[in-house]
Amino acid sequence: MCEQQNRRRSCAVLGLAASTWYYRPRAQDETALRAAVQEVAAEYPTYGTRRIAAQLRRVPYQLAVGRKRVRRLMTEAGLLRVPRRSRRRTTQSQHACPRYPNLVRGLVITRPDQVWVADVTYIRLRQEFVYLAILLDVFTRALRGWELSRSLGVDGTLPALHRALAQRTPQIHHSDQGVQYAATAYTQTLLQHHVHISMAEIGRADQNGYAERLIRTIKEEAIELSDYRDRHDALTQLSAFLDDVYQRKRIHSSLV
Asked: What does pTM read for this prediction?
């Protein structure tokens, strides 16, 4: 009797119902959640814990799940991965073309098409290299234009720019100081559209971080998971990823 009274007194002090003393938590069945985690990870093999958790909260899953729980389940299933890093140099900043100052340092970006960023990366095919040029709207993270070419120069970046400008016009175009962005044909196209030109300082890849992150995403989620036979094969597969998965389906970390 004394023991029972002590239990009731303890529960009363803590503001809990007396039945709480006898409650024993039941092990939660995570079978369905584990299957959902594996399904999302299979569809998006480079998603980390934050995006997997966000995807599980969307239709059709609509599961109330947190990032820590997803991390535990992914760890148990061996689904966490360390991405590879590319080291091939694509910026040639030793040229006689005009330089432009960095206009986006400290700039607060508040609307679409206020700032576009541009970058180039290489893709290894079975017999050659090709180069992917991209243009990203910083505010929306939407891909404004891209081009896959055999040239690291303006022959690749200019068509991407033309495609982007045919749809929208940015206030500022920001890139590194590579010759493919400093070339007269490229800068004159921007000036003709009354676009302000901005460039990161030489050796400061961090000053073009938004474009760098997009390139990393494309490499991790498309390029490194594929074996392109030739340019046509790469163009077909990249088009499916960039125009469908990236633009319409992929969860962007800034929006999670």
From this structure: 0.64
